[in-house]
Structures are given as structure tokens and as C-alpha cells.
Write a structure and sequence with these properties.
The protein contains six helices and no strands. It is mainly α.
């Protein structure tokens, strides 16, 4: 009997990504969110998102897509709390934007977006073109280099 692969054929790579994101320093999350927010407004990213959605549907990997959401939401919420904790300990520069709103939901959402895009790109790594993969992964590339995930199958 084979062991089920919750994230599809790239389960090991997705798990490595999740582990490294969970261990990422607090300050790297805000950087990833800023990179993602700029990237998400580009035609390149929009095309990559469309390719991702189509690949998921064509391959029938909706279960794998859905499986990665819960862990990522928890990792992003934990990161938002760590960022808020650091912000409370360090005086903020005068022009700094707050890392979180009351309760940290804004930061958690901001942090989840680049992490989810990257994780889904890894789930679909075998079916996305290099350009699409890089566009989706770029938000977290400063936190977790792609080579840390293992070889691309």
C-alpha cells in the first residue's frame, strides 16, 4: 500500500517549502509581502496565475491545492504574530507602516498571499513553464531559494 501524497508528486518539495517558511525570520515576511504586492499587479504575474489555475484544473489537483491552504494560513498567522511581537519591541521609524492591524489579520493575509502562490507553483511544478513558476515563486524567493526544495522533476 502506498503512502498518500497530500501535495501530489511534489509533496517532499512542498513540505520543505512549508518548513522553511515556518522558520523564516519575521522581517523577511514583510519583504516578501511587499515584493508580492508589486509583482501581483504585473501582466506577467496575471498570466502565471491564469496558467496555474488552468494547470490545476487540467491535472485534477484541486485536492492538493486545497490541502496546502490550511498549513499556509497557520504559518502566515504565526509569522504575523512574530512580526507584531518584534514591532512592539523595536521603535518604528517615523514613516513605517504598521505590520498588522488590530488582531494581525491584515498582515496574516498579506503574508499568506505570496506563500500560497509559491506553494501552488511547487504543487504544479511539473506542469508549469519556467516563466510561470518563477513569477509565482518570486514573492518568497528571498526567503526560500528554489534550490532548497530539491531537484525539479
Amino acid at each position: 500500500m502506498s503512502v498518500p501524497l497530500p501535495y501530489g508528486p511534489h509533496t517532499d518539495a512542498v513540505r520543505r517549502l512549508l518548513q522553511r517558511l515556518a522558520a523564516a525570520p519575521a522581517e523577511s515576511w514583510a519583504d516578501a509581502a511587499r515584493r508580492y504586492e508589486a509583482l501581483a499587479r504585473t501582466p506577467r504575474y496575471a498570466a502565471a496565475e491564469r496558467a496555474l489555475a488552468q494547470a490545476i484544473a487540467d491535472a485534477g489537483r484541486e485536492r492538493e491545492r486545497d490541502a496546502v491552504v490550511g498549513p499556509l494560513v497557520q504559518i502566515a498567522a504565526d509569522a504575523a504574530e512574530r512580526v507584531a511581537r518584534v514591532a512592539r519591541l523595536e521603535p518604528a521609524p517615523p514613516a513605517a507602516a504598521p505590520a498588522t492591524s488590530a488582531g494581525g489579520d491584515d498582515a496574516a493575509d498579506r503574508f499568506a498571499e505570496p506563500a500560497l502562490a509559491a506553494a501552488l507553483a511547487v504543487v504544479m511544478r511539473d506542469l508549469l513553464g519556467r516563466e510561470e513558476f518563477e513569477a509565482l515563486y518570486e514573492g518568497v524567493a528571498g526567503m526560500v531559494e528554489e534550490r532548497e526544495l530539491g531537484p525539479r522533476a
